[in-house]
Design a protein that fits this description.
By secondary structure, the protein is an alpha+beta fold. It is built from nine helices and 18 strands.
């Protein structure tokens, strides 16, 4: 596995996944690096320097090979870091050092931007699942006729539906928190970037830092569903995890989910299907509860408010619909009822394409 936590500026600059993220053309890489930075806030300065260096390369057509660029980047970094903390009288401000990196690196070449996408992994070898000792294992089963909420060792909770069960260590030791689920459970995980939270559900593994989500997994069904309410969730198959145990530098294939998104994992062929949840919920904080009363409101503003409130991307032709406006006193209706009313008002219609809402319209006079 690639351990990015040990990377320096020159390492990030020559890493394919990092370059594709900075280029901004791969949602998969964007999701991974956003997730990774949450886990490693101590690398923020290094990441910022590497990003600005690559942005400085963007319009440079010079082509050089990888050995040359590694050598040149090392020279640049050494030059910039001459103003070390131990030579305070010569120390440059942080942003001045970054600017120096960008200017000095501008001639390194465009070649970084022409590489092919690669699969990526956010797991370290130390994070591979290991069996729990039976003497420390705790199992909670919901044998009642209603939902039951179990509290985990770190203060996180899982609301189990009837007939569901969860098992975990009496204490979360080591560098991860591991839970095994059978049935359906709604997790509310206490945030801890230093100790990621893992849920094992049949052949699916879910990894989070601190968020809320639902997992549905039954032994007699061939599908596992993960639906996110808040935060970010990373999911991958158990077989991928086992491969990463055996193969050095293996790039684990994973999927990233945001609020109001869900993934359905087909166990037999290990295939993921990503979509919106059945009833998207408002994801803004209570103090930011939006007002959905529209009075001759431009359609761009209407869609922007819905996107912010529900965290769902809405795609439409802004030029074609620039004259459209909405007057409607909307309130507590579901997102899709709101869209039904809005589309009827302006003579448009919508469809759901995976995790995106696509609006079709002939425009407004």
């Amino acid at each position: 596995m690639i351990d990015y936590s040990k990377f320096k500026v020159e390492d990030f600059v020559t890493d394919e996944s990092f370059c594709l993220w900075v280029k901004g053309t791969s949602p998969e890489h964007t999701a991974f690096w956003e997730f990774w930075m949450e886990v490693h806030p101590e690398k923020s300065e290094t990441i910022t320097q590497a990003r600005l260096l690559l942005l400085g390369l963007k319009n440079q057509p010079t082509a050089i090979n990888e050995d040359e660029i590694s050598l040149e980047v090392e020279k640049i970094v050494r030059l910039v870091e001459k103003s070390s903390p131990f030579k305070a009288q010569f120390r440059l401000p942080f942003w001045s050092r970054i600017a120096a990196v960008v200017v000095l690196g501008a001639g390194l070449g465009w070649w970084l931007w022409s590489r092919n996408p690669i699969s990526i992994s956010g797991l370290k070898r130390s994070e591979i699942a290991t069996p729990m000792a039976e003497s420390t294992r705790v199992e909670v089963s919901n044998n009642t006729h209603s939902d039951y909420t179990a509290t985990l060792p770190d203060g996180s909770t899982v609301q189990l539906t009837k007939g569901s069960k969860v098992s975990f260590s009496e204490k979360f030791s080591g560098d991860k928190r591991e839970v095994f689920l059978t049935g359906e459970g709604f997790f509310q995980v206490v945030r801890n970037p230093n100790k990621p939270f893992y849920v094992y559900a049949n052949d699916l593994v879910t990894r989070v830092l601190g968020t809320s989500f639902t997992i549905k997994t039954y032994t007699d069904e061939q599908k596992v569903v993960v639906a996110v309410k808040t935060g970010k969730v990373m999911v991958f198959s158990l077989s991928e995890l086992k491969k990463s145990e055996k193969i050095a530098n293996y790039h684990l294939q994973s999927l990233y989910l945001l609020p109001n998104q869900q993934a359905t994992f087909e166990r037999q062929n290990e295939k993921f299907n990503k979509a919106l949840v059945e009833q998207p919920a408002i994801v803004t904080q209570p103090v930011e509860t939006p007002n959905f009363t529209f009075e001759n409101t431009p359609i761009a503003e209407v869609f922007a408010k819905l996107k912010k409130a529900y965290g769902v991307n809405i795609s439409y032709d802004a030029d074609l619909m620039k004259n459209c406006s909405v007057t409607a006193p909307l309130g507590n209706e579901s997102l899709f009822v709101k869209l039904d009313i809005i589309c009827k008002t302006i003579g448009a219609h919508y469809e759901i394409v995976e995790t995106e809402i696509v609006i079709s319209s002939r425009g407004c006079p």
